[in-house]
Amino acid sequence: IAARIFDLIRQYDIPKQSIRFSVAESHDGKSVRGSLDLLTPSEQQALARIVEQNDGKIKTKAVIHGREPYELCASTRDTLIRIDEQVLEADRFLAFYTMAFALMGRHVKSIYFNDLIGLGNDCDRMEKTGELRDIKRTRSNVAELEKRLSDPGSIHFKIARGINNLIALADADPALDFRGNEAEMLATGNPVVCCIHNHYRHHHTLTIISTSAKAEAISIDLSGIDWELPETVFDQFTQAAFVIKNEKLALKAEAFHRLWLKEAMVKILPEYIAIGIKEHC
How far is CA 85 from the centre of its chain? Predict the structure, then answer.
């Protein structure tokens, strides 16, 4: 699906100097109409089933032949199949946001506040107000929020730390400079793992994301990109090193693995990495 986004963008004559405002999520529902040229009918139906299974709601409107859906009301977390293991669920959430940020590349990125901490569906609020969109408009109590964010065993703690560091990394990475090039997809030899290339001048970033719940092997041919390939690239999240051999990068991606690969570690101010989401509330 990620590759289809670039196919759609290429249909428009967009000036190189223009900057898009990319919205990953908002306080309103998710537009069904907006997905008609991106998702197949079966994919749309599958997404709707997941939303309903997770207690989300589907808004419909009157049309000539009856009613048809136009908006999905559900939190970002609850548009995905639920996972009992919270650590794995947090890893998946962070993997998908890492993919979103890499796809947005040089453009302005926005993120909905509730996604900063990975809040799920708020069915209680929706039932109280009667507004379906309120399922994702949680009004957080500061004391309760601080409690969640100070508990290392909480999924909100893991997501808040991961999203915060992702934002800091994307801000600090010169390959995502607003004067840079559009992001591009590279083949991985595996349909459940994607690789996104961002670059500006001599700065390059390879972002690899696995959407699989199990380990996956991948091989990426780097011979087709304009880059004086280094011998080794480093993951900005873990500092792990990966060797490029014969213009190919081969590795095993763990469940919902995300890698932000560069030829050297990006320098991020320590206070930026350590800052807590709760300090912005």
Answer: 20
What whole-number distance in Å separates Cα of residue 73 and Cα of residue 71? 6
Token pair, residue 227, equals 């880059």
Is the pLDDT at 82 greater than 80? The verdict is: yes
Name the one residue in this structure whose structure tokens are 């696995």. Answer: 210
- Provide the token pair at 124: 């209680």
Q: Give me the residues paired with residue 184 across strands.
A: 197
**In the prediction, which pLDDT does 269 show?**
57
Instruction: Centre a 10 Å sphere on the Cβ of residue 151 and count the other Cβ atoms it contains.
Output: 12
Whole-prediction pTM: 0.90
Is residue 59 pLDDT above 50, yes or no? yes
Separation CA 64–CA 221 (nearest Å): 50
Q: Which residues lie below 8 Å from residue 169, measured CB to CB, with a gap of 6+?
A: 236, 237, 260, 266, 268
Give the position of tokens 């290429």.
10
CA 65 to chain centre: 36
Answer positive or negative: Cα dihedral of 3, 217, 255, 47.
Answer: positive
